[in-house]
Design a protein that fits this description.
By secondary structure, the chain is mostly beta strands. The protein is built from four helices and 19 strands.
Length: 377
Amino acid sequence: MKKLLFLCLWMLSLAVQANDGVYFVSGNQLFPAKETDIAITKEVLTISLQDDGYALVDVQYEFMNRSQPKSVLMGFEADRPYNAGETLHKDGAHPQIFDFTVVMNGEVLRYKTAVVESMSEGESDFKPIDLNKWKVQENADDGNEDGLYNASTKQYMQYAYSYYFTAHFKKGINRIHHTYRFSMSSAVGTSFIVNYWLKPAMRWANRQIDDFTLRIKAENTMKYFFIADSVFQTKPFKVVEGDGKVRKTKHYDSDRTEIVLRNGVVEWHQKNFKPTDNLNIVSCDSYMTFDEELPFGSFYDRSEGYMIYVMYHKDADPRIIRNLPYASRGYVFKDKYLQKYFSRFFWYMPNPDWEPSTVDFTPSERRYLKNDVPKID
């Protein structure tokens, strides 16, 4: 009974709207609407994980046009949110994508948005749906949107949002700098999920990215997450800035790379990269939730929406809870019990130079200091 109550409280603490969580949006590569002889020669993709529930995307592309100057319609589509309480945005702007920018060869490009038929990563021509003919259809079971319905043809359609623009490629090297931010998804037992579609890059002429770099950043925070090795097994991830650790793990017969960063950057680099799957960044609490030992502090995240699941257990040590925020910043404890305790966890990275301070503590962390959390009797 206690385990059942614990699990119920944990599920409620994630504040999701359904048992399988809330999906906001996947990031995506820029791709051409039609076949083209332009190739991607270089890409540096940087994804910054934030404490406010958002991920920042910054992409630096280099394209090679070996023929004459030409114009190409390009962009991406993003699936609509799921279980997020969102309704159709007729202007085509995705409700969970913000601050979208494109700069090509030093010039800021104007872009358009549209509601389009979802291709689920397939081909897309960015053609807007006629919303005079297609109306929102609600799911009878839960009231959520269930796509669009055309009464005259009696057809159903799943829709997505597209961002597209005309890019004028000069002969030779062309550079595009692309940025936006979007809401990270979550699920039961998972604080954050970042999905990013890599496979659409295969639509360019060379059917690969000649020189690809993935950078994942945790700036002014600590993030603990894993990445499935289905795409990244050929080369190791390396911490290139700040504090961080990387190790290989296996869970449910799946190989993955486990990463912790504190004000740091982890990097993965590959020449002639042909993505066969997409990128998924998943917080490490997802496979610790049902740990029978319930080690207090096995996962920690500073984001305001996160509640440490072990706090609901009656045996939670108040000293551990109070000191979790300090441990995440690398405090070396003079108390031997606390130092030994936190040294158990992969995310703990001692920093002898850090002086104790609560200046950057989140409101949740300030509550931890007061042990202002519920317990199970």
